Model the fold of this input.
Amino acid sequence: MRKLFGLHGDKKPGRVERPGEDIVFEHLWRTAAGASAHGRRFSIHQPNVLLFQMGKVASSALEVALIDRGINCFHCHSLRHQDEALRLSRMFQAEPGFRLAAMDLKLLAKHTSLNMLTRWYRTNEVSPDRRLKVITLTRDPFTWYVSQFLQRVGYDPQPLNDWHREFTNGKGENGDVRAAAGALLHHVGQLIVESRPSIDPAAARARGHALALAMTPPQPYIAENIRRALQPLAWFDEQFTPMFGVDIRALPEFAERGLAHRDLGFAELLIVRFEDLGRHMDAIGRFVGLPGLEIPPRNVTAAKPFAGQVLEAVRSFQATELGIAFQRELRHSDYGRACGYDRQAES
Done:
């Protein structure tokens, strides 16, 4: 705890060692650190990095690698007022339970304090070596959807199995994850291809949702998976651009290199394509002042429960005409083109 608050032995360092970082900064920093999973390993005197990304991009491995080398790595997926307002509403209205007490309360504190801390950096000058550094990553939208789908099924396959049984009027074999995943991919793919996110992702999200609920009977589970499949296409517009004023479509070098750097004055940004993470580790190390930075290579996806069954269904779906059209719609969106994923669709 003394390390977290910057206390070492009997000495209490003054803010003179961190010019420009006032009492407001300290309160915001300590709240964010206290609500972080690895906050006990942080020190207010260490450099601060905000790892702000959409999830399923090896961010946890990168977070630990930075913390192991003496960086305060604040890791989050959302800093939007809208998301935290909904969380706060649930906390005031729902019956207190483990998730609300152990997770949502901490996330509310962390996301709110990180939002405020980022805005503090925008209007306060600190020494050059103490500026905020921000890392974000992109990922192919189709493989992102598969990865988060695997995570959810691995955690609890029952919602998928329940949907499949009801959708087939009890004919679907209970527990056949491969058949259920294949059926879901087929119907999600059909509605996404019909909705055309390659033309207008926002309109496609609304149309896909409406089409799923217009089915007989209405299919909210399919609608939710359409929302998830289109989530990467909107993440930068909804999360990153409002915080930092940088549009992923305005980085002409990124589609080619999978790497872009911007200096905003109050913060430095590094945008990395997940698929090129390995070859850009040296650039990330230079960005944070850690030569030789590495993350351990490991395939966590293949180790998840039911991964084999889900991936078998995915491979079968990918090879179909519908599967190819589904991938093309995601990769030819504004986001996909800005990140160079449309080139993968043509290869």
Remarks:
- Residues 15-139+245-288 form one domain.
- The first strand starts at residue 48 and ends at 52.
- The CA atoms of residues 174 and 283 lie 48 Å apart.
